[in-house]
Amino acid sequence: MSDEDIIGYLLDQLDPEERAEVEAYVAAHPPAAARLDRLRLALAPLEADREPDPAPAGLALRTVGRLAAYLVEHEPRPPAPRAAEPTADTAPDLEPLRVAAPAPPSDPEVRLVGGRFWAELVVAASIGLVALGLVTSGISRARHQQQLVACQNNLRALHHGLTGYSDAHDGRFPQVGVEGRPTAGTFVAALVEAGQLPTGFAPTCPAAPAEAAVGYAYTLGYRAPTGELVGLRRSGEPVADNDLLPISADYPSADVGPGTGPASPHQHLMNVLFVGGNVRPTRTALVGPDRDDIYRNRYGQVCAGIDRTDVVLGRSGDRP
Fold it and tell me: Lower Cβ count inside 10 Å, N or C end of the chain?
């Protein structure tokens, strides 16, 4: 049981069957239960920041307005000037008493009431905006992490389908570049025809907008010494590193991917699915068996690899 499975369980990103598997495994393995508790504590800050809806419109302006109203209400006012007291020599029936204009206040704090008010208003508004930015940033990070985990679970479901297909086809995975399946994206049709994908399964990354669905890259296979195109196998290979071969992944991110096609919806990250079922997020395309680029062959081309360990994953319309 991997940490990705347990994180998906904690974030409610697993389907009912997978949740039941995790619960059964944890109940039967005390170390897994302890690891679940540790991960739950580690994810607690993210869960605290999670919010289903974006910040309400106008929240920043309302926050600044309330701060301004508070400062206006509590700002000290200078005392009102009082009329001069009449002297003993002043006759009550003479012309109206002339009152000298009050002298400007000598207290610097009183003279700068307005200036201090605006300075405090600017400071308070800045603090409010910074706090709002921190909250919004935390929500954004939590949502990005949730989308990343949802995509990883989607790739694991895809791996279940690939495993079932290989069990029914002598250990072979769907091969593209052959008659009826010319491009990388047609491997999904092969799994559907074989009944290896659950009803309603969408072979696209859930982090992408619905109107711009982004699928998954898939192995273009490799060329045998005779020039024949060969697909990957789940079993029967003569080497022990078969489980370390990438077989599917997010589309390459814009800063590492070849061409101008669709890019990974995870910005600078890609989730990579290996033959053994492990899903690994990465910021680099150099995660092949020999630390080579998984989106180009050793000649820098988007086509079949030059040998079995030269992994090349193509976008939906790419051909071997």
Answer: N
From CA 117, how far away is CA 213, in angstroms rounded? 52
Tens of pLDDT, residue by residue over 233-255, are: 876 555 455 678 899 999 999 88
Query: Using CA atoms, how far apart are residues 247 and 216, in angstroms rounded to an integer?
Result: 10
pLDDT (tens digit per residue) in 118-146:
566 666 666 766 655 655 555 566 677 78
CA distance 1 to 239: 25
Distances, alpha carbon 237 to alpha carbons 67, 223, 231, 233, in Å: 69, 15, 12, 7
Q: Which two tokens stand for residue 184?
A: 């990388």
Rounded-to-integer distance, Cα 232 and Cα 273, Å? 14
pLDDT tens, 141-188?
667 778 888 899 999 999 999 999 999 998 899 999 999 999 999 999
- Alpha carbon dihedral 114, 116, 119, 120, in 10-degree steps, equals -110
Q: Which residues pair with 270 in a beta bridge?
A: 282
**CB 285, CB 252: distance < 8 Å:** yes
Rounded (10°) CA dihedral 169, 315, 269, 48: -70
